[in-house]
Amino acid sequence: MIRLPRRTLLAAGAALPLVAIRTRPAGAAEFTYKYANNLPATHPLNLRAVEAAARIKDATGGRVEINVFPSNQLGSDTDTLSQLRNGAVEFFTLSGILLSTLVPVASINGVGFAFKDYTQVWSAMDGKLGAYVRGEIDKRGLVAFEKIWDNGYRQITSSAKPIRVPEDLNGFKIRVPVAPLWTSLFKAFGASPISINFSETYSALQTHLADGQENPLAVIDTAKLYEVQKYLSVTNHMWDGFWFLANRRALEALPADAQAIVRREFNRSALEQRQDVAKLNATLEGTLKQKGLTFIATDPAAFRATLKKAGFYAEWQQKYGAEAWSALEGAVGSLT
């Protein structure tokens, strides 16, 4: 038996051609992530999110693939937030008001009748107030991207009676999302708020578990709530937006260049979606009237005065703290 010196064997081994070991099929993404939200597939948020996902896949050379799951397909808002935190879902857009169950100050954009127009909204949310909220979200192990998406000003609908003045809300059974701010707001008007996840809202209205609800025009249209409601009161009682949230571990697992691309493209789509909602709102009143809803004008000053008298603003100023409240009033003026 011929014994070759160890050095010779090592040299021979080094001369052999290298064989690549594939850990994934050719052409498959290196990172496949899930993005969930609670809106219908036809809502501008989902249309723009799909575009962002396509741009991300292209810009990363196919390394990052993000699949979009609309309409609470992966669970209710409450369930999906838990999945986001444990990493079962990598991305999730959620109203700051709903996020307040985890990050209390995240609901501050929903303070009743705070924002008079969109100029004030974007000044606050792209500025000092938004930065403060993102910092608080960061402390909970999640990442909120820089540009919040527009859900819109919320309006009250009803199947029982028109809502014209604050007194019309007395005893009114209204569906609200599962968050303390909504409950507090409508209790200040003497209403009977019922906390129900959005995925169950249509059936709650259909079965008269609730007589009304409140949502932006685009949601009322795309979720077909006009089928189970008669009146729409233009209250603009609350501006609501969606933070684009990422599981920190999942985001940081991406190479630095891919992280930058993901942020860039979803922030870009957020700005485009804002324009979409603005254009949609300009036509939705006519559309929803044609679908059977009766529109009712209201006086915001009367509703704001009722909230102030009930101590609503003083209560929430104390809950949010001086720094957050100062950032809000810096954009909208004094509320208390």
SSE map:
Elements: H1 6-15, E1 31-36, H2 44-59, E2 64-69, H3 77-86, E3 91-95, H4 96-99, H5 118-125, H6 128-138, E4 142-144, E5 149-158, E6 173-176, H7 180-188, E7 192-195, H8 201-206, E8 212-215, H9 217-222, E9 231-247, H10 248-253, H11 256-290, E10 294-297, H12 300-309, H13 312-320, H14 322-332
Parallel strand pairs: 1-2, 1-3, 6-7, 6-8, 9-10
Antiparallel strand pairs: 3-9, 4-9, 5-8, 5-9
Helix pairs in contact: 2-11, 5-14, 6-14
Structure characterization notes:
With 336 residues, the chain is α/β, with parallel strands linked by helices. The chain is 45% helix and 19% strand. The chain has one domain (27-332): Bacterial extracellular solute-binding protein, family 7 (D-Maltodextrin-Binding Protein, domain 2, 3-Layer(aba) Sandwich). Strands 1, 2, 3, 4, 5, 6, 7, 8, 9 and 10 form a ten-stranded mixed β-sheet that branches. Helix 2 packs antiparallel against helix 11 (256-290) and helix 6 (128-138) runs antiparallel to helix 14 (322-332). It is globular, with a radius of gyration of 24 Å. The protein starts with 5 loop residues before the first helix and ends with a helix.
Care to give the gist of this entry?
The protein has 336 residues and is α/β, with parallel strands linked by helices. Helices cover 45% and strands 19% of the residues. It is built from 14 helices and ten strands.
